Amino acid sequence: MNKKERYRYILDYFRKKMPNVTTELEFGSVFQLLVATLLSAQCTDKRINEVTPELFRHYPTAEAMAKADQEDIYEYIKSVSYPNAKAKHLVEMSKMLVENFRGEVPDDISDLIKLPGVGRKTANVIQAVAFGKSTMAVDTHVYRVSHRLGLVSKESNTPYKVEQELMANIPESDIPNAHHWLLLHGRYVCTSRAPHCSTCEFDDICPKLIDGSKL
Fold first, then answer.
1. Which of 11, 33, 183, 202 could form a disulfide with 141 if both were Cys (CB 3.0 to 4.6 A apart)?
2. Does domain 3-21+136-199 have CATH number 3.40.50.880?
3. What is the pLDDT, as a whole number, of residue 123?
4. Do the Cβ atoms of 30 and 187 come closer than 8 Å?
5. Is 69 among the residues known to form the active site?
């Protein structure tokens, strides 16, 4: 099976089995999605969803969060990874949104990555989930699954290179969903340790390129 056939097989499966898919993060606005996505770095969505309801009850908007002290935010997110740095980023990000974007989250990647704590992966999530753009966010799950399934070459050894190779091979209409397809497959099936190959729908076609698949 060549790469083109591999893409077709995998995408056909996901289109049929998961036609409607989105982030597992819970949010009530684009701003809240941005906050939750920033918090989710190196942390589980489950943990973030346990933390954000109370955080958003007190700071539902950029305007509200911009007035908070870092210590105030820390108290609500201290159970997530790197809480001090994330609390600092959230306050600074909110202030920049208020000062530069009238409290609204911009939809352009060049503006998004200017925000404190927002990297390319987070920016791509916002563009895809909030604004429906064809962007491919590459987190550790997407990176791992893309390599193990043989969707990208060994030379794609950075998240950006993986993003570019996936974008070049996945139809534009599938790209917003493809991030979630690969992420969820990595989260629940093709796990970092002890992948569940016996229950994987792609076991028969998977080259099992385990070595070097981890970021």
1. 183
2. no
3. 96
4. no
5. no
Domain 30-131 fold is Endonuclease III; domain 1 (1.10.340)
| Whether 192 contacts 214, CB under 8 Å | yes
* Contact status, residue 107 vs residue 117, Cβ threshold 8 Å: no
% pLDDT > 90, the chain: 91
- Pick the closest to residue 11 from 212, 210, 209, 202 (CA basis): 202
Q: For this structure, is 121 an active site residue?
A: yes
Task: Specify the pLDDT at position 215.
Answer: 66
The number of beta carbons lying within 10 Å of the beta carbon of residue 204 is 8
Active-site option among 78, 107, 108, 139 = 139
Catalytic residue among 67, 78, 121, 214: 121
Distances (CA, A) of 148 to 56, 75, 185: 38, 39, 12
All structural domains of the chain with their residue ranges = 3-21+136-199, 30-131
Stated pTM of the model:
0.88
